[in-house]
Amino acid sequence: MDPFLTSRIVSDLLGGVTQGVIYGLVALSLVLVWRSTGILNFAQGAMPMFATYVGMVFFAKFFGYWPCVALSILTGFVLGATTERVLVRPLYGKPEINPIVVMVGFLIVLESVAAAIWSSGPHSLLSPFSQVDFQLGGKPIALSDFTLYEIGTALLVMTLVAALFRFTNLGLQLRASALAPEVSRLLGVRVGRMLTIGWILSTGVGTVTTILVASKSFFQGLTPQVMDGVFVFGFIAAAVGGLESPVGAIVAGVGMGIILQFVTDYVNSNAILLVALVILVVSLMLRPNGIFSPSTARRV
Amino acid sequence: MISVEGLSVSYGAVQALRDVSFSAETGSLTAVVGANGAGKTTLLRSISGLTSPSRGSIILDGRDLRHQLPENIARLGVGHVPEGRGVIGEFTVEENLRLGALAAKVDLKAGLAEQYERFPVLGERRRQHAAKLSGGERQMLAMARALIAQPTTLLLDEPSLGLAPLVTAQLMHTIKELCSSHQITVILVEQNASSALRIADRAIVLHVGKVVASDVASVVAADENLRQYYLGLVE
């Protein structure tokens, strides 16, 4: 049997990709909101967390895993739409600090409310697939049914988002609303509705990500803070890839997952935050708009 | 028919339009001319709903547009090609046109074919990003994008800005042809007063937000006082 597949490098690579798609999805959800409204949603981890509690904990008393997944995503959609209409819409055109303060406050409120309702202790989510690594020639490789489900789901979400933006009339209107809201309105596009849909999509993607994260035994189930750490790395991936670029978010997320996995294995797991910050600082020094964002010409 | 009555617009303490009134018959071409800061762009923005007037009414075929949202006004058949053209550079030519056709719910295939026939260069460049088009081509795209929605009223803000004289002449010919053959009511804002007055049926001269003259275009064009003091057309 080929020892390469069970080698330390391949194991780290697979583990990095598995973790990286999660960072990529968080980054993608941030990019979806940034592109449509120019707001950095600091509650991007907390909103899906709350939706996941509703779907995967509250409804778990009545339904099985897959209906609960659907209900979580549906709750995420409703929460995204409500947040945009009630909390965010009055902030458009206001100083940039206002939405940041409001969304940080909303993050704290959601985590507190979730803890008050469901306690701050972990809730184990039933995993629909085995998390036991496959064996090859008697040796484990860093792949399991669950990691394949995780990677497959991430690829499916990315493909659906890309197809939506690239091939559909809704995607055309979403992009137009983000790029040229005034012109879009002159062409009859209901820009307000598009902004709401941007938040709905973003929270939906975030909820899928949270379900994957909370289903992994590594993260010890669902807690009100389950997405805090992941959000930090997803945020860095979005900044490195470029807040304007969905492709950049995914590539930077996967790239960072791989790098951090190697750092964990070969250096020290405590060093990953420092390494992530170094990646952020260096990339911002070299490409302030992110690696994949188009350069902006400035008239001087 | 579009009718504007007693329209006033303020930006804070600055009054951009003061009691502006005029009407434009269906299929007519009305030129709005005047110096920089006269309020020409504000007038068009008020009609299309981008700017809220403080007083007055804007009636399109019996319906008051004053409290309508821009997207609803567009769906009522008002096309607005803004100053600077407003084409989306990150979109291809065809995506820009698709966007124009979406809200109007027109037959996209037939609409694209019609616009490519009217502006053949757009057909040749349908897959190219709009940012890569020349100034004249962008103007054609902006016009085509407005026309694909089959508007009944077309607001054009400085369409000749930055264009070569020959391109401007072709553009003015196209605008005139649209009025006469498609019965589109055109309100044309232009700094290039002589070009606009040459093709217009009627003309309005604005000066610091007020209408100082409103008459048949040829009469305005022949008035020496208007030419000298408001239009900067000195022989």
Question: What does this entry look like structurally?
Answer:
The complex is a heterodimer of chains A (300) and B (235). With 300 residues, chain A is an all-alpha fold. In chain A, helix 1 (8-37) packs across helix 9 and helix 9 (228-241) crosses helix 10. The longest helix of chain A has 30 residues, at 8-37. Chain A is built from eleven helices and two strands. Chain A has a domain at 20-124 and 135-227. Chain B has 235 residues and is α/β, with parallel strands linked by helices. Chain B has two domains: 1-77 and 152-235, Rossmann fold; 85-150, no CATH class. In chain B, 38% of the residues lie in helices and 26% in strands. Chain B contains ten helices and ten strands. In chain B, helix 3 runs parallel beside helix 6 (135-147). The model of chain B has no long low-confidence stretch (mean pLDDT 91). At the A-B interface, helix 6 and helix 7 of A face helix 2 and helix 3 of B.
